[in-house]
């Protein structure tokens, strides 16, 4: 994907042969009414690929990611302008139902946040609330989701145990299973492995590689090794701007800009 960044139009262009799952046009995020934290980001996310957002702390990665499924709506004083284009619709429009958006574009957070319920209920809960009553159907949703998150074999005999008793890595995979259970198209992950040990981190990365066959994944990471191992495309954010965006191999071996090179080689941030 030879992407070019057009500074005059602040536009990221992606060749037409790539199928795009989601894109933003001149996306800006303001906090407390006035402070602009994201300065007009235009970029597109190829379908069935993993795109990593990297950049130093405070560069706006989480803010941008949260905008993509309207999670900034939950923050008092936050305002998002510009377009978020998904399946031909600008989902940043106030008329769009945010709950539907979040079903299509799921999110996994930095700290695993299972509900204080059983492993089974962590997944079944949402579906029962949506009206699924058939026990066999619920069992099937739970099993399929846990299998997709590579957790089924470890927990299948303990589904009634509290999710709070799980290890951090297992709890995070339960949260991934929960996100997958509503059949999203896109999964947003904000540093999903930063609270985990190296083995759990590898397992999450392996799961992501498996999931991209069926999902589009956008992941924030401050871990350069993780971005270079696990992603197809990498976007470098700095101070609320998208600085450079390209294939991961290009960003890590021959980036166009000196600041990108300095960042990926560990010279700042
Ligand atoms: N809820 C918030 N209210 C006000 N400012 C915020 C909030 N969240 C983030 N910011 C500010 O927005 C900027 C980008 O932060 P963030 O998106 O968290 O960066 P990153 O994820 O890259 O570390 C920072 O200046 C941060 O202080
Ligand atoms: Mg962050």
Automatic annotation (TrEMBL):
InterPro entries: AAA+_ATPase, ABC_transporter-like_ATP-bd, ABC_transporter-like_CS, P-loop_NTPase, PstB-like. GO terms for biological process: phosphate ion transmembrane transport. PROSITE patterns: ABC_TRANSPORTER_1, ABC_TRANSPORTER_2. The keyword Isomerase does not apply. It comes from the Bacteria. One of its GO terms (molecular function) is phosphate transmembrane transporter activity. Keywords: ATP-binding, Cell membrane, Membrane, Nucleotide-binding, Phosphate transport, Translocase, Transport. GO terms for cellular component: membrane. Gene3D superfamilies: P-loop containing nucleotide triphosphate hydrolases (3.40.50.300). SUPFAM superfamilies: P-loop containing nucleoside triphosphate hydrolases (SSF52540). Residues 22-264 form the ABC transporter domain. This is Phosphate ABC transporter ATP-binding protein. It comes from Lactococcus taiwanensis. The lineage of its organism: Bacteria, Bacillati, Bacillota, Bacilli, Lactobacillales.
